[in-house]
Amino acid sequence: MEFDGLFPLTTPGGVGTAAPAGPGPAGFTAPGADSPLPVRMRPASIDELVGQQHLLAPGAPLRQLVTGTTPMSVILWGPPGTGKTTIAHLVAAATDRKFIAMSALSAGVKDVRAVIDTARRERRAGGPPTVLFIDEVHRFSKTQQDSLLAAVEDRTVTLLAATTENPYFSVISPLLSRCVLLTLQSLDEEDVRKLVRRAVSDPRGLGGAVTLTPEAEEHLVRLAGGDVRKALTALEAAAASAAAQGVTDIDLATAEKAVDVAAVRYDRDGDAHYDVTSAFIKSMRGSDPDAALHWLARMLVAGEDPRFIARRIVIFASEDVGMADPQALLVATAAAQAVQNVGLPEAQLNLAQAVVHLATAPKSNSVTTALGAAMADVRAGRGGAVPPALRDSHYQGSRGLGHGQGYRYPHDDNRGVVTQQYVPDDLVGADYYQPTDHGAERAVGERLPRLRRIVRGTATPPGDAGRVSRAAGPPAPDGGSAGVARKADDGLAAVVPPAGGAKGRGVRKDGAPAGGPEANDSGAAAGEEQP
Fold first, then answer.
1. What is the pLDDT of residue 326?
2. Which class in CATH covers the domain with range 271-360?
3. pLDDT at position 88
4. How far apart are alpha carbons 257 and 457 in whole angstroms?
5. Lowest-confidence range among 49-63, 101-115, 361-375, 469-483?
6. In this structure, are residues 130 and 43 in contact, taking their beta carbons and an 8 Å threshold?
7. Chain centroid, CA 507 distance in Å
8. What is the pLDDT of residue 526?
9. Is the pTM higher than 0.70?
10. Rounded to whole angstroms, how far apart are CA atoms 13 and 114?
């Protein structure tokens, strides 16, 4: 059966054992003339490795693993085409170790235990140590990974595992703690270019049978996106296309025909999904619309669910823009609605507009931090009973319980704000919301201290004693029309009612204002949902 599409495993069950002799590395079939170009161009020694310089220094774990100087179990984590399988080949070539290759796609617990039992017997008999290579180890279940723990712990086997997924999510913690984690990075363009040129000239590769123009080379390097396997596969396809045309020069047109679209590295269920989403959010938060549009395009081209993108945008509007631009939430929800009603591809424009709006909007996380502080107090047990004046008083018998007594109706004050305790006793004076001076929130920040002074009764604003009551009062002193809004001394809007008081309003025997919260057309308290 094929393993990773690059080399066959020699026995059933996903396990390939070391061959007693042969031209290829133990456990692997030697590449033939018809093998894919990436297979033929595998480095024959660690000195031929390109890239991963952070792991190749003298004494570094990767070099020790390949040379066999120190037995250690290693997990190789990196994107496709960064050399994980190549490293396995180099380890297999060591003559003093038995090498066994296993595919996580097909092997089970029975296969793992069989390898471990054999390794234990041979080790006790004085045989060579066993290196067990498991590709795509993240596809092993928890039970399968558990079966490796004891053998890795006592070094019955030296584990060499490869994965493209984040091992902190895909590998169980006990196994991860017994291994050295080596992170392989995508190769940069110069590294990929070096390997492409080597493949053109090396006898193992194309052997100089073709030449590559600078434009075609640049095209192949750019399409690779750091994946050497992809670059060499494209080069082989371009060489075959040139041969079919009877030419030896691979120009840009030939290279474009061989590989016309770059595959986007994006797995909706994998690590790249979370990385790209994180970059998308952080780019909007960092006010970089160009970067945000790039990550949006990456998700759209890769086929990400547009509803997921829309949800992230709506969340961002409140989490990172908030009161600095209240319109941002409306724009975000409109884009989400457009995704539902219009769909792709046209809704891409709606998403892009929302992304640009959010990225360029003033930013504030004051709503986020305010809610977090309030929830922290609740979880800590702060917050007593609802103040009696705020309790529901619309049902029969509630007045006898003292519910609603003493409640002050804010609309009966000419400013629309009254002194009244709205929080439990142990939270009096708690300031959760701390507005910034960004965008529209600056005006909120200027108004909030005055609101808190009045609500908490901490100070009497200048001119408060001469305030005109809404229940009754003289006409506007400037002779203007009754009911015209003007600015009170405390900076809040004041409305001067017509002479003689507000029409249709008075005071009931129980002291509550007629038409107020205790008496409306439905018989329910004002603010309660009406049938």
1. 95
2. mainly alpha
3. 82
4. 77
5. 469-483
6. no
7. 58
8. 41
9. no
10. 11
The helix (H) or strand (E) run that includes residue 335 is helix 327-341
What is the DSSP code string of 44-81? Answer: SSGGG--S-GGG-STT-HHHHHHHTSS---EEEE--TT
- Is 278 buried (19+), middle (13-18) or exposed (0-12) by CB count in 10 A? exposed
Buried b / exposed e along 461-487 (16+ C-beta atoms within 10 A): beeeeebbebeebebbeeeeeeeeeee
> What's the confidence (pLDDT) of residue 258?
74
Q: Sheet harboring 15-16: ordered strands across?
A: 15-16, 98-103, 130-135, 157-163, 74-77, 180-183
**According to the model, what pLDDT value does residue 474 have?**
37
Structure tokens at 410: 């804010």
Portions of the chain given CATH number 3.40.50.300: 2-183
Q: Which CATH architecture has domain 189-258?
A: Orthogonal Bundle (1.10)
* CATH 1.10.8.60 domain locations along the chain: 189-258
* 85 contact partners, CB below 8 Å, separation of at least 6: 4, 6, 7, 135, 162
Q: Which residue has the tokens 């003289």?
A: 474
Q: Is the pLDDT of residue 92 over 90?
A: no
Task: Domain 2-183: give its CATH code.
Answer: 3.40.50.300
In which region does residue 52 sit, left (phi positive, over 0), alpha (psi from -120 to 50) or beta (all else)? left
Examine the pLDDT at 505 and tell me if it is beyond 70. no
Cis link prior to 36 (omega < 30° from 0)? no
> Half-sphere exposure of 480 toward its Cβ, with a 13 Å CA cutoff?
10
The pLDDT, as a whole number, for residue 12 is 36
Structure letter (DSSP) for residue 513: B
3-state secondary structure of 174: helix
Q: Note whether 292 and 283 are within 8 A (CB).
A: yes
What residue type is 397 in one-letter code?
G
The CATH 1.20.272.10 portion of the chain extends over: 271-360
pLDDT (0 to 100) of residue 530: 31
DSSP symbol at 201: H
Most confidently modeled range among 1-5, 167-171, 302-306, 316-320: 316-320
Mean pLDDT of 192-220: 90
Residue 298: which residues within 8 A CB-CB, separation 6 or more?
A: 264, 266, 276
